[in-house]
Automatic annotation (TrEMBL):
Domain Response regulatory per the UniProt entry, residue ranges: 2-126
Pfam families associated with the record: GGDEF (PF00990), Response_reg (PF00072)
Coiled coil regions, renumbered to chain: 132-162
Primary gene name: cph2_8
Ranges for domain GGDEF: 190-327
Keywords in alphabetical order: Coiled coil, Phosphoprotein
UniProt cross-references to InterPro entries, sorted A to Z: CheY-like_superfamily, Diguanylate_Cyclase, GGDEF_dom, Nucleotide_cyclase, Rev_trsase/Diguanyl_cyclase, Sig_transdc_resp-reg_receiver
Superkingdom of source: Bacteria
Sites of 4-aspartylphosphate modification: 59
Protein name: Phytochrome-like protein cph2
């Protein structure tokens, strides 16, 4: 905690310094001119430099630049504006004091300086400075905590929309996006398609290779399906267990069948051995497709039910195939 005395008179500087030191203020720095004070405060630096100075005692009448103008410049500096300034003046003319307060001075002391008055004013200014510092530290801490909270919330909302195993969207996220895409399609009268994918004989896969391998297989299938999707609005999500769902906005049934077939083939190309499957030597999927132009008379659940029914038909007509829902 340092106090800076700015005074062109050497006698005054020595006197005030001694008085302060006698009252236990051990770190007292002096400057002969306003410019020397600016140097000490680092005012010529482009960025804020940390200063030890907690209080400035500023003489008013000085050559080159008077104490009031110096006070105004220090207060205009965003790095230094919280340092209290007490002006030391030979006159207590109202006009001088008014100018000093307008320039940002906190208090004044008249010359000749009286020891008790100096001590009282310095103590009260330092107390205020301490409180300002405490408040600023609390504010900085609060800003930091808020930033951390915002980051954590962002991460939480990202995680809450992802499936823990496969890393693709989860069912909750699918439902949000589907609802949004449905309303958009109904509003604009555009087409929307939905695919339901289900691994064939996956129970046998787990029984043969174990649950861990089963989990790895689900990850590969999710990644393969995701790679097929090219448009920014397309979304693949894990609907649950070994079932996946794909949303294809602004896509006709014919387009959706193409995507479904591309996904089915991409999963075949992964060539994940499935020795217990009655339909192929590798992992395969069945896909149900529903879609078309959305009107306000339709319900969002209609497409889901139709895609699910088409999936059921794909299963019952031999698996490892794509089936389109009847309207
Ligand atoms: P289908 O061709 O008729 O779909 O037969 P399926 O064996 O795939 O269908 P079923 O519904 O009988 O079995 C689904 C299996 O998927 C059973 C379940 O243990 C497995 N499964 C579901 N979720 C997970 C998972 O997160 N990890 C693993 N490893 N297996 C899962
Ligand atoms: Mg299955």
């Amino acid at each position: 905690m340092a106090i800076l005395i700015v005074d062109d008179s050497a006698d005054s500087r020595v006197l005030v310094k001694r008085l302060l030191e006698k009252n236990g203020f051990s770190e007292v720095i002096t400057a002969e001119t306003a410019f020397a004070a600016f140097d000490l405060l680092g005012m010529d630096q482009p960025a804020c430099v940390s200063t030890r100075i907690d209080l400035i005692l500023m003489d008013v009448i000085m050559p080159d630049m008077d104490g009031i103008e110096a006070c105004r410049l220090i207060k205009a500096n965003r790095c230094l504006k919280d340092i209290p300034i007490i002006v030391i003046t030979a006159s207590d003319i109202t006009e001088t004091l008014e100018r000093a307060f307008t320039a940002g001075a906190m208090d004044f002391i008249t010359k000749p300086v009286k020891p008790l008055e100096l001590k009282a004013r310095v103590l009260s200014a330092l107390k205020i400075k301490y409180e300002i510092d405490q408040r600023k530290a609390r504010e900085a801490e609060l800003v930091k905590v808020l930033e951390e909270l915002e980051n954590a919330n962002r991460e939480l909302s990202r995680l809450s929309s992802l499936d823990g195993l496969t890393g693709i969207a989860n069912r909750r996220h699918f439902e949000q996006i589907y609802d949004m895409e449905w309303r958009r399609a109904a509003r604009t009268g555009s087409e929307l398609s939905v695919l339901f994918l289900d691994l064939d004989f996956f129970k046998y896969y787990n029984d043969t290779y174990g649950h861990q391998e089963g989990d790895d297989c689900l990850k590969q299938v999710a990644a393969a399906a995701g790679q097929v999707l090219k448009r920014p609005g397309d979304l693949v999500a894990r609907y649950g267990g070994e079932e996946f769902v794909v949303i294809l906005p602004e896509t006709s049934i014919a387009g959706a069948v193409e995507v479904a077939e591309a996904i089915r083939q991409a999963i075949e190309r992964c060539n994940i051995p499935h020795s217990a499957s009655p339909v192929a030597a590798h992992v395969t999927v069945s896909v149900g497709v529903a879609g078309g132009r959305v009107t306000l008379a339709d319900k969002p659940s209609d497409f889901i039910a139709r895609a699910d029914k088409a999936l059921y038909e794909a299963k019952h007509s031999g698996r490892n195939r794509v089936k389109v829902a009847e309207c």
